[in-house]
């Protein structure tokens, strides 16, 4: 392995747009290790963006889409299509601090592996330096990062997902050069004369986090949450560790603004696991007369206490990285209009014969011929999905026609209700209001969902996904539960009410008991009215569920009988559920707070099951 001598790295750094020693020494140390041919600082200006686009078009990585505004298509390596949880590590000094749900390795051991992997890993390539901020630079506590990467595709995607460029570099300098170090390499060095491939990556993958040093190192993948390090790696795993220290919450939640026909406003946050409906709910078009919903965020919420004791949420992201399949004019017209506004990068969707994109669920009619995400001819008879189930649209959030004005407010909006929910065919009712904060934390901590294509692995298996954060908690899950309970004990706190929802319950014949999508506005109305103190509820062992007639199904093709089934709490299902919860808590070790374990017994008693 040739290593650049010091002189040549200095040459690459000549003309760097900063003289900040912390920034320079970080960039220098990564360049020395990875030996790129060039270093390019991302400015955020259009000329640079065009140039990168053109390079990627020439390399075959991006295809321009003549039917779309300023948008591109990319197809990844078929082995690089989703987050790889089994290759994701939390490298805290103590193993107990990573906890039983994260892969752990001692920092030194991991650094030695990474040292070998990153040595010369950018050879023949350009190292891009992306200064960015999650949230806004003018927030009370701005959260900066610098991602270095050897993927121009990652640069273009990061520029959609976060505020990046010269302005952010200046802001980092002004704030004393504090930033989260994000190091990314696709791990595909190029020898002189070696021909590149369309989607370079490495079969060895490591997505690693050093929460105590606030650093992220990612190797081998160019896709989504593995590579756009501002998203899951920073804004959830590292930020959750910071939030624990500082007394706030970094969560996998959408943020929604609801306005009633009377003009009253409430803000709601909701945590559903990956590919379980956050983007859809964040962009909901209410079917109820006079109700208005506006979008603030579709994936991540940071919530800090305001001086008035309320939890204020901001969306740290600047873009949408939405699941394409199932997004269509009938299910999510808002997302379709956002996409129409242009500036998109689509990955692993299908292509129509006239050069547009398509995915399952986009249109009512399926085209008779397509090129599938693997580049093969495809017809409806092919028997395989045309778009990969985790194919994504990457779209500027400012395209969203329903974006609330408060999105630009650096310190966020006060949250009145938190919804937890997952994808469950049975057991979990359409909606329940939990009894109090501790009971709400209990329900969130036992959140369960059938697995989806958003992560590699088997699809459709029920797994516990606490607060929809299972793959994203940057520390021990038991300590994370304790942190949630402590948030509830914060002096002067005016806490949101916590609800549990399930859009995915099925009837005996396998059909959905609840129409979902825009009709979820009816559940949101009930939640709004519970917070306002106007909706009727009945007390159940799980908290409060809508009293008969209080959930508005007027004009909906749902019978009272179906609604009863959707809301039912069946003791035989719960006997099984409680056993599974208990087993799961036990598997998490001794950090699980006793208060939560006590909730299992309380619930068992209320349900009258053994
Ligand atoms: N049956 C039903 N399906 C839904 C509903 N809402 C969303 N979906 C489907 O769930 C899938 C994922 O929805 P998204 O809104 O993209 O999920 P997400 O939680 O934002 O996913 P990530 O971006 O991976 O975090 C899509 O295929 C949707 O069509 C609903 O209310 N009912
Ligand atoms: O991180 C990703 O790749 C996409 C995402 O939002 C999720 O999986 O929740
Ligand atoms: Mn997500």
Task: Jot down its keywords.
610 residues, alpha+beta, nine-stranded mixed beta sheet, 22% strand, globular, binds guanosine-5'-triphosphate, binds oxaloacetate ion, binds manganese (II) ion
Question: SS-based structural class?
Answer: alpha+beta
- Number-wise, the strands total 31
Contiguous low-pLDDT stretches (5 residues minimum) are none
Mean pLDDT: 96
State the end-to-end CA separation: 64 Å
What fraction of the residues are assigned to beta strands by DSSP?
15-25%
Cofactors, ions, other ligands: guanosine-5'-triphosphate, oxaloacetate ion, manganese (II) ion
Q: How would you sum up the major sheet?
A: 9 strands, mixed
The tally of helices reads: 17
Shape: globular
Helix content: 25-40%
The radius of gyration computed from the alpha-carbon positions, rounded to a whole number of angstroms, is 24 Å
In short:
The protein is of the alpha+beta class. The structure holds guanosine-5'-triphosphate, oxaloacetate ion and manganese (II) ion (MN).
Task: Describe what this molecule looks like in 3D.
This protein has 610 residues and is α+β, with helices and mostly antiparallel strands. Helices cover 29% and strands 22% of the residues. The chain contains 17 helices and 31 strands. The strands form 6 sheets. Strands 1, 4, 5, 6, 7, 8, 9, 10 and 11 form a 9-stranded mixed sheet that branches. Strands 12, 13, 14, 15, 16, 17, 25, 26 and 29 form a 9-stranded mixed sheet that branches. A 5-stranded mixed sheet has the order 2-3-19-24-18, with helices on one face. Strand 6 and strand 7 form a beta hairpin. The mean pLDDT is 96. The site of manganese (II) ion has 3 residues, from loops. Its EC number is 4.1.1.32. Monomer. Mn(2+) binds at residues 232, 252, 299.
């Amino acid at each position: 392995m040739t290593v650049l001598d010091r002189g040549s790295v200095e040459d690459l750094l000549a003309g760097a747009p900063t003289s900040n020693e912390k920034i320079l020494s970080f960039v220098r140390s990564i360049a020395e290790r990875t030996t790129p041919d060039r270093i390019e600082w991302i400015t955020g200006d259009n000329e640079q963006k065009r140039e990168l686009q053109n390079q990627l078009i020439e390399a075959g990585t991006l295809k321009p889409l003549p039917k779309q505004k300023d948008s591109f298509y990319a197809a990844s390596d078929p082995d690089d299509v989703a987050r790889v949880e089994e290759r994701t590590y939390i490298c805290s000094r103590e193993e107990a601090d990573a906890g039983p749900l994260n892969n752990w390795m001692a920092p030194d051991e991991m650094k030695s592996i990474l040292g070998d992997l990153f040595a010369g890993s950018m050879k023949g390539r350009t190292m891009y330096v992306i200064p960015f901020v999650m949230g806004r630079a003018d927030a009370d506590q701005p959260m900066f990062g610098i991602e270095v990467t050897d993927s121009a595709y990652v640069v273009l995607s990061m520029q959609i997902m976060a505020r990046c460029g010269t302005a952010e570099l200046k802001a980092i300098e002004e704030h004393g050069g504090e930033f989260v170090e994000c190091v990314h390499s696709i791990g595909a060095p190029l020898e002189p004369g070696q021909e590149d491939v369309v989607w370079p990556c490495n079969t060895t993958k490591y997505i690693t986090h050093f929460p105590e040093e606030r650093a992220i190192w990612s190797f081998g993948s160019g896709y989504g949450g593995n590579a756009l390090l501002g998203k899951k790696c920073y804004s959830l795993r590292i930020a959750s560790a910071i939030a624990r220290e500082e007394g706030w919450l970094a969560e996998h939640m959408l943020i929604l603004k609801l306005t009633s026909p009377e003009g009253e406003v409430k803000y709601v946050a909701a945590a559903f696991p990956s590919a379980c409906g956050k983007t859809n709910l964040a962009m909901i078009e209410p079917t109820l007369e006079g109700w208005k919903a506006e979008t603030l965020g579709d994936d991540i919420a940071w919530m800090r206490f305001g001086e008035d004791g309320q939890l204020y949420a901001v969306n740290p992201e600047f873009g949408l990285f939405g699941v394409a399949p199932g997004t269509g004019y009938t299910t999510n017209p808002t997302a379709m209009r956002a996409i129409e506004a242009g500036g998109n990068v689509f990955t692993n969707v299908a292509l129509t014969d006239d050069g547009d994109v398509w995915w399952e669920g986009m249109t009512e009619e399926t085209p008779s011929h397509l090129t599938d995400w693997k580049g093969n001819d495809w017809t409806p008879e092919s028997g395989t999905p045309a778009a990969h189930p985790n194919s994504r649209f990457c779209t500027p959030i400012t395209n969203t026609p329903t974006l609330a004005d408060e999105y630009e407010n650096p310190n966020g909006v006060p949250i009145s209700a938190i919804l937890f929910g997952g994808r469950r065919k049975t057991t979990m009712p359409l909606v329940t209001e939990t009894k109090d904060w501790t009971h709400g934390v209990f329900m969130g901590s036992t959140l369960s969902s059938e697995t989806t294509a958003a992560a590699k692995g088997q699809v459709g298996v029920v797994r516990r996904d606490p607060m929809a954060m299972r793959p994203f908690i940057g520390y021990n899950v038991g300590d994370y539960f304790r942190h949630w309970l402590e948030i509830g004990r914060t002096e002067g706190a005016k806490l949101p009410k916590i609800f549990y929802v399930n859009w995915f319950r099925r009837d005996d014949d396998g059909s959905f008991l609840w129409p979902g999508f825009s009709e979820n506005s009816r559940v949101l109305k009930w939640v709004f009215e519970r917070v306002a103190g106007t909706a009727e509820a009945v007390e159940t062992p799980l908290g409060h569920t809508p009293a008969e007639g209080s959930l508005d199904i007027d004009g909906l093709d749902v019978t009272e009988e179906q609604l009863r089934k959707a809301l039912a709490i069946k003791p035989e299902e719960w006997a099984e559920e409680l056993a599974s919860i208990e087993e799961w808590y036990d598997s998490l070790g001794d950090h699980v707070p006793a208060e939560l374990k006590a909730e299992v017994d309380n619930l068992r008693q209320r349900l009258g099951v053994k």
